[in-house]
Amino acid sequence: MLTFDPNKRITVDEALEHPYLGALHCPEDEPITEPVSAFDFDFEIYDLKREDYKELLYEEVMLYQSDDNVREYLENKERYPNGILAKRFGDRKLKPKQ
């Protein structure tokens, strides 16, 4: 789960079944929920540089500083449910996990 590259990272379900977490695994008491929106994690499918992450983090912080930013975020999330970063980083898309 701590692997930064999402193509190499195990899933949450795989992590819960891993022997390291064996003593903590309790299927009857593990909540299941809807998957997180692809819009909020589309950064994981691009080969981004340190400066790109800094910029994205700054934008995330600024999201909480004005109602206009929140409104724009919600409009973009509705308009681009699979993410908006393709407009900026589309040429750097990672190869899918096989």
SSE order and pairing:
Layout (H helix, E strand, L loop, with lengths): L11 H6 L32 H14 L3 H13 L6 H4 L9
Task: Note the beta-strand portion.
Answer: under 5%
Rg (C-alpha, Å): 17 Å
Unreliable spans are none
Mean pLDDT: 87
Number of domains: 1
Structural class: mainly alpha
Distance between the termini: 17 Å
Q: What percent of residues adopt helix (DSSP H or I)?
A: 25-40%
Count of DSSP strands: 0
Q: Number of helix segments? A: 4
Order of helices and strands: HHHH
General form: globular
Largest sheet: none
Structure description:
This protein is mostly helical and 98 residues long. The protein has one domain. It has 4 helices and no strands. The longest helix has 14 residues, at 50-63. The radius of gyration is 17 Å and the shape is globular. The two termini are 17 Å apart.
Quick structural overview:
This protein is mainly α. The chain contains four helices and no strands.
Keywords:
mainly alpha, 4 helices, 98 residues
